[in-house]
Hints:
2 copies of one chain form a homodimer.
Chain A: H1 18-36, E1 41-42, H2 44-51, H3 55-65, E2 69-70, E3 74-76, H4 77-88, E4 94-99, H5 103-110, H6 112-115, E5 119-126, E6 135-136, E7 139-143, H7 147-154, E8 158-161, H8 165-178, E9 182-185, E10 198-201, H9 204-226
Parallel strand pairs in A: 4-5, 4-8, 5-7, 8-9, 9-10
Antiparallel strand pairs in A: 1-3, 2-3, 6-7
Helix pairs in contact in A: 1-2, 1-4, 2-3, 7-8
The structure holds a DNA duplex.
Amino acid sequence: xxxxxxxxxxxxxxxxxxxxxxxxxxxxxxxxxxxxxxxxxxxxxxxxxxxxxxxxxxxxxxxxxxxxxxxxxxxxxxxxxxxxxxxxxxxxxxxxxxxxxxxxxxxxxxxxxxxxxxxxxxxxxxxxxxxxxxxxxxxxxxxxxxxxxxxxxxxxxxxxxxxxxxxxxxxxxxxxxxxxxxxxxxxxxxxxxxxxxxxxxxxxxxxxxxxxxxxxxxxxxxxxxxxxxxxxxxxxxxxxxxxxxxxxxxxxxxxxxxxxxxxxx
Amino acid sequence: xxxxxxxxxxxxxxxxxxxxxxxxxxxxxxxxxxxxxxxxxxxxxxxxxxxxxxxxxxxxxxxxxxxxxxxxxxxxxxxxxxxxxxxxxxxxxxxxxxxxxxxxxxxxxxxxxxxxxxxxxxxxxxxxxxxxxxxxxxxxxxxxxxxxxxxxxxxxxxxxxxxxxxxxxxxxxxxxxxxxxxxxxxxxxxxxxxxxxxxxxxxxxxxxxxxxxxxxxxxxxxxxxxxxxxxxxxxxxxxxxxxxxxxxxxxxxxxxxxxxxxxxx
DNA sequence: ATGCCTTTGTGAACGCGTGCACAAAGACGG
DNA sequence: CCGTCTTTGTGCACGCGTTCACAAAGGCAT
Lengths: 265, 265
């Protein structure tokens, strides 16, 4: 899960729980697929299977939007597509700027999933003057100097940050100052924003680290079958064993193998 | 939040809550930054601020790992970096394959955040024969035919899927069949996997849709100040008003504007 | 050695999210 | 018009996660 809202303790906006909102796009995608196959109606069971969730959860989610189903029949696909789209605000056009057109930024610019859902790339912005004017995904790169004017001229309220970590907060500040109130952050940094601004982050390396944890656990469980509690290989911090704070237990290369790959980010 | 574990109801693996695991990489990053600045110790308050979380939450998170702090002083940075790295399994090398080297796959291959944390790209795999052998990020593209042998030869247990949605499930099946037990999915599809396999998904368009929801809500709240309940513009499904299921309430272009951008994905 | 001051570690309460299980609602056939 | 059968919508209970608040622990100065 590369997600995680910043600020606001999962306030249910207008009665719709945050967790439900996060699933609506999932339902929408499944419904859209059904719509293309001209399927007229779906049961909660079918749709839940397609979206990979529990059917009771799905029904409860929809109940927050209203009573859009028909008992004994199911949900009208087209109608539901429209309702969810409207609820998510996809019936209107959202101009978006992408700041930082490196490998990732360029990939985002070329990503079809954005344009196809009512999101329109208003501009691609990069700080490198040498790149200015270059075409990416059919759009000319604009220089960071123009950031404020681009945002104001196009009424942009959503910004995507794909810069290196070091530049992210500065870019963020400028975006917010210029009027952006929603930010999708791909830079591996914690962004600080004023109240009223939503930040969602997508962190590729964090996702892998979480997978690594579970992967290690799986491997560990197998090992435990033969030798339980091989868990404290070289650092059992028995309260009494570490009274020297400055020299505590250093990584101590050995036993567990090599030193962790500690590097920037 | 481009996140979302599939399967398993947030089981706390080995006593460490899933939510805590998801934050450990965040702490690790903050600690690494401190380590580079040669800061010897941090208080939970400082570190929490750097990681963007509540300090009580951070302390509780660390308490699951053990008692690694010193009261009145704080946490030893180096020591904690090591402990978290070990807990996350970053003290070992994880070979990873990336399948689907389009814009996004190439960006991932070039992303430094992977290699720097103990993740080594074992191979880049693409289905297009014309691409085979081409160099990306210093590695030669391999053809999908080699997928199984690559995984077995390198002992790969983590796979990254960056293919189009249509190919994702097939690729997933082959990965799992070949021995991969953790998958990071960038394709906009729900993957079905057997028990014991972890899937995390990163979905760029879903993140934007969630932001759009909140953005719309913000705009709506302002409007409500002048005219409350401008909420049911064209579809108040009063149970009695819609008895014809097949013809229910069509998007009905008008009133709300245009038809939602319903498209593939 | 003693006392003060800082900071950790955690017990307990609260709230959100999930899933079960069922009653109500409606379609459909006779 | 009535009975049956399907599927929704939801009341309820449970469990995870978050947060508060505080006692215990240790450093440090005197």
